[in-house]
């Protein structure tokens, strides 16, 4: 049985080429010099600008909704996160281009811009509207109340019955967590009806003294209210409706419309609950629910992964900037380049004024996990004068987590740098009464590099960064397995200190080397320090570079292979995860993140800071596998 009539978009199969549908309008505007006010095609420019602003409206509401800055906003209605499935469904991805821009999935805007253009051609007088005429304002408001609202109410109730619901409106209700973009998740038939209702109010106003300003105000007001109703954040204070009870029937709230999404048989109105009251479909608990939501209580996460920004481009890879882009592994895209100056300005502002904030969240075994970010970028960590400021920000995040009742804070990448804070020991020693456990996660990182990546039967490895925290643990572990470890270091003192930690019978497997040429016959390189192309040339063909260096080295050798940073797949029962962790695939997190998760799930009561306990590598690795985390 085929799909129902007008239940799918006819240009879905075009992918990114669907934007060719704008070409006739753009071409006509260019040919007619529409940017000139005296041009007969000036209306086309205004129309295209209007629909561009409409797209931006939903993007801005999405950014607002996805800004869970610490402390978390207490007005979230549905507390669950938005997962990858919902993002895919709302944006119906079809190409690489479409997944890069959050406001590019504009099927309903493509439809309605052509509906509007057809109206302009059918009624030429619309092309000559004045910039502003206040006479149409009252008519537009009246028509909205007496026509648009009741007709939408009737149509909406019809779409909740039988064939119309199963073949059309069920798509809109298939999402778990309402989002501003959910407002556009509907079939062509529904958007035709909605477009006709919008045109009714605007057309009547135009006949009674319409204007360009009124058209913009009405359409954008319509979009703002639709996006607000689906934003899943209560924006109205509860006291407002107690002080002015009549407002309860004149304007709906995000809580009010979310009840419609959960109960489905109540709260059908467009924007005015008055019509639910008249139709007998107003949920009696709507305003009490709104009051409780607006009062709000912070939900405390039990686990926090404390990350930092990598660079200016990567700062755009967050849900509150571009949600769809953040749901894919990060890579530099051309569309990011025009946004770079703004992102650079934000970086300077964050450096000067910002504090640690929440980026994203998910649930694991019904427990809330959050990712926070220190407002510092990768290059800051290599500025000598920035060290104290970075540690102050990390300390602030740890103390905030401790006050909130968070159980585990896991430090990411450069936040646990040995030279910066001793792998977290600075904070534990300074605040011995911490209830929150501070974890660097490097025990699992070492396990990920050793147990998963290095093939069985390996007898010799070459390692840079060999005297670092991770390098030391890897070397001591491998020598126990009788694997010869060539430790690249110029410091004999640091090498001998590590060698003395090994059992006497294993010390012979640790060998100090001071030149890269020493590894010219070794095909297993473990990289903990940046390698230049010249240094990589010493590796023989067929070498595999295992990495724990941040940032990872660049792959210059085509005859060699390059591993990524140690990472693990989160358990299958993770919920509400909708953002990728930097360049990792969906559902994959860095090993230090996974190490913190294991620390929390196991209920360990100790801090994991400073030197890695080599004896615990196997223990933590087995615990990770037992809890459903899997190596990538």
UniProtKB/TrEMBL annotation:
<dbReference type="GO" id="GO:0005789">
    <property type="term" value="C:endoplasmic reticulum membrane"/>
</dbReference>
<dbReference type="GO" id="GO:0016491">
    <property type="term" value="F:oxidoreductase activity"/>
</dbReference>
<keyword id="KW-0472">Membrane</keyword>
<feature type="transmembrane region" description="Helical">
    <location>
        <begin position="192"/>
        <end position="220"/>
    </location>
</feature>
<dbReference type="InterPro" id="IPR036291">
    <property type="entry name" value="NAD(P)-bd_dom_sf"/>
</dbReference>
<comment type="similarity">
    <text>Belongs to the sterol desaturase family.</text>
</comment>
<protein>
    <recommendedName>
        <fullName>aldehyde oxygenase (deformylating)</fullName>
        <ecNumber>4.1.99.5</ecNumber>
    </recommendedName>
</protein>
<dbReference type="GO" id="GO:0005506">
    <property type="term" value="F:iron ion binding"/>
</dbReference>
<dbReference type="Pfam" id="PF12076">
    <property type="entry name" value="CER1-like_C"/>
</dbReference>
<dbReference type="InterPro" id="IPR021940">
    <property type="entry name" value="CER1-like_C"/>
</dbReference>
<keyword id="KW-0456">Lyase</keyword>
<feature type="transmembrane region" description="Helical">
    <location>
        <begin position="332"/>
        <end position="353"/>
    </location>
</feature>
<dbReference type="GO" id="GO:0008610">
    <property type="term" value="P:lipid biosynthetic process"/>
</dbReference>
<dbReference type="InterPro" id="IPR006694">
    <property type="entry name" value="Fatty_acid_hydroxylase"/>
</dbReference>
<dbReference type="InterPro" id="IPR050307">
    <property type="entry name" value="Sterol_Desaturase_Related"/>
</dbReference>
<dbReference type="GO" id="GO:0009414">
    <property type="term" value="P:response to water deprivation"/>
</dbReference>
<keyword id="KW-1133">Transmembrane helix</keyword>
<feature type="domain" description="Fatty acid hydroxylase">
    <location>
        <begin position="142"/>
        <end position="281"/>
    </location>
</feature>
<feature type="domain" description="Very-long-chain aldehyde decarbonylase CER1-like C-terminal">
    <location>
        <begin position="461"/>
        <end position="631"/>
    </location>
</feature>
<dbReference type="GO" id="GO:0009409">
    <property type="term" value="P:response to cold"/>
</dbReference>
<keyword id="KW-0812">Transmembrane</keyword>
<comment type="subunit">
    <text>Homodimer.</text>
</comment>
<dbReference type="GO" id="GO:0009651">
    <property type="term" value="P:response to salt stress"/>
</dbReference>
<keyword id="KW-0256">Endoplasmic reticulum</keyword>
<keyword id="KW-0521">NADP</keyword>
<dbReference type="Pfam" id="PF04116">
    <property type="entry name" value="FA_hydroxylase"/>
</dbReference>
<dbReference type="GO" id="GO:0071771">
    <property type="term" value="F:aldehyde oxygenase (deformylating) activity"/>
</dbReference>
């Amino acid at each position: 049985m085929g799909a129902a009539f007008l239940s799918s978009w006819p240009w879905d199969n075009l992918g990114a080429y669907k934007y060719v549908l704008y070409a006739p309008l753009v071409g006509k505007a260019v040919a007619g010099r529409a940017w000139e006010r005296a041009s007969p095609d000036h209306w086309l420019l205004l129309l295209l600008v209007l629909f561009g602003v409409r797209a931006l409206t939903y993007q801005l509401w999405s950014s607002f909704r996805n800004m869970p800055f610490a402390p978390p906003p207490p007005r979230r209605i549905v507390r669950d996160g938005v997962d990858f499935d919902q993002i895919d469904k709302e944006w119906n991805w079809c190409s690489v281009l479409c997944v890069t821009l959050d406001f590019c999935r504009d099927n309903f805007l493509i439809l309605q811009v052509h509906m509007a253009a057809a109206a302009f051609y059918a009624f030429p007088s619309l092309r000559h509207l004045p910039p502003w005429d206040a006479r149409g304002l009252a008519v537009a408001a009246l028509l909205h109340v007496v026509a648009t609202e009741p007709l939408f109410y009737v149509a909406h109730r019809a779409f909740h019955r039988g064939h119309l619901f199963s073949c059309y409106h069920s798509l809109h209700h298939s999402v778990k967590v309402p989002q501003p973009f959910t407002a556009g998740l509907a079939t062509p038939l529904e958007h035709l009806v909605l477009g006709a209702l919008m045109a009714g109010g605007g057309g009547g106003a135009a006949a009674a003294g319409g204007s360009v300003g009124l058209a913009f105000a009405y359409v954008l007001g319509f979009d703002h209210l639709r996006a607000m109703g689906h934003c899943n954040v209560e924006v109205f204070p509860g006291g407002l409706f107690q002080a002015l009870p009549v407002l309860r029937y004149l304007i709906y709230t995000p809580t009010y419309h979310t009840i419609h999404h959960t109960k489905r048989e109540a709260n059908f109105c467009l924007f005015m609950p008055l019509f639910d009251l008249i139709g007998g479909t107003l949920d009696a608990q709507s305003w009490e629910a709104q009051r409780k939501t607006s009062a709000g209580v912070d939900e405390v996460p039990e686990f926090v992964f404390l990350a930092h920004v990598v660079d200016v481009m990567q700062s755009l890879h967050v849900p509150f900037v571009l949600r769809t882009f953040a749901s894919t592994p990060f890579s530099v895209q051309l569309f990011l380049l025009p946004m770079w100056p703004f992102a650079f300005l934000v970086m300077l502002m964050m450096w000067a004024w910002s504090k640690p904030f929440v980026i994203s969240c998910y649930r694991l075994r019904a427990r809330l996990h959050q990712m926070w970010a220190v407002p510092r970028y990768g290059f800051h960590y290599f500025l000598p004068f920035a060290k104290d400021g970075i540690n102050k920000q990390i300390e602030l995040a740890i103390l905030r987590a401790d006050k909130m009742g968070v159980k585990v804070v896991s430090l990411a990448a450069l936040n646990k740098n040995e030279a910066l804070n001793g792998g977290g020991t600075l904070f534990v020693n300074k605040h011995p009464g911490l209830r929150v456990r501070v974890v660097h996660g490097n025990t699992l990182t070492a396990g990920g590099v050793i147990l998963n990546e290095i093939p069985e039967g390996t007898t010799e490895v070459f390692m840079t960064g060999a005297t670092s925290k991770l390098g030391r643990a890897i070397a001591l572990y491998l020598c126990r397995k009788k694997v010869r470890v060539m430790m690249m270091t110029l410091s004999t003192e640091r090498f001998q200190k590590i060698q003395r930690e090994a059992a006497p019978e294993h010390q012979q497997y640790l060998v100090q080397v001071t030149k890269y040429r020493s590894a010219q016959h070794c095909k297993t390189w473990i990289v903990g320090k940046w390698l230049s192309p010249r240094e990589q040339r010493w590796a023989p063909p067929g070498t595999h570079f295992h990495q724990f260096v941040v940032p990872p080295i660049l792959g210059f050798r085509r005859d060699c292979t390059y591993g990524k940073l140690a990472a693990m797949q989160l358990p299958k029962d993770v919920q509400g995860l909708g953002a990728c962790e930097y360049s990792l695939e969906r559902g994959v997190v860095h090993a230090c993140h996974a190490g913190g998760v294991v620390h929390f799930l196991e209920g360990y009561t100790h801090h994991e800071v400073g030197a890695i306990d080599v004896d615990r590598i196997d223990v933590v690795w087995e615990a990770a596998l037992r809890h459903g985390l899997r190596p990538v």
